[in-house]
Design brief:
The chain is of the alpha+beta class. It has helices at 13-47, 51-57, 74-78, 84-92, 159-169; strands at residues 58-65, 70-72, 94-98, 102-106, 109-122, 125-141, 144-154. Strands 1, 2, 3, 4, 5, 6 and 7 form a 7-stranded mixed beta sheet that branches.
Length: 180
């Protein structure tokens, strides 16, 4: 269609709908990227003993359950960098390595699942001292995305670790469900 200079062409409803769809898809990509960055920050934060950085990843009432009792509250989670076992790993040389998570978004909540390894240096090279499945629930608030819960279970053949992986892959997870 040819439009002469100075004439007005009313907006095409199809273009407006497509633009709205594109904005929705872009927002979802931005949310997923923010979640990926948040999870990726965990390893460098704990390996550098940066308790404040760890605290900033969690919501104030968030928790981290790694099998020997849960740390509840962002201050308690941040305190894990001061635990004797963790400090021992860091003093020997450690790397908390997390795989790329699978992320499912549902408005202002998300669920992610991934693997983690804790590598510690020794006289004969690096050794994985912990290999685990992780299930994360996250919520977007005024300060962006934060962790509400992280459940971490050793991949030792247990049904519980397999269950975490399956829960994280559940595409039908919705806002109304409780965190696992």
């Amino acid at each position: 269609m040819r439009v002469s200079r100075g004439s007005y062409l009313p907006p095409d409803p199809d273009i407006i709908a497509r633009l709205a769809t594109l904005e929705t898809r872009l927002a979802a990509l931005e949310d997923e990227r923010a979640i990926l960055q948040l999870i990726a920050r965990y390893g460098p934060a704990v390996d550098s003993l940066s308790g404040a950085e760890v605290r900033d990843l969690w919501s104030p009432g968030g928790s981290y359950d790694f099998g020997s009792g849960a740390l509840v509250g962002s201050d308690a989670v941040a305190g894990l960098v001061d635990m004797a076992e963790h400090r021992g790993f860091v003093e020997r040389g450690s790397a908390h390595v997390l795989s790329l998570p699978v992320v499912h978004l549902e408005q202002d909540r998300a669920r992610a699942v991934n693997y983690s390894q804790v590598l510690v240096a020794g006289s004969d090279g690096w050794r994985a001292v912990r290999v685990a499945a992780n299930l994360w629930t996250l919520r977007r608030g005024p300060d962006g995305w934060r962790v509400e819960t992280r459940i971490n279970r050793l991949l030792d053949g247990s049904a519980e670790a397999r269950h975490l992986l399956a829960e994280g892959l559940d595409r039908d997870w919705t806002e109304g469900e409780e965190a696992p």
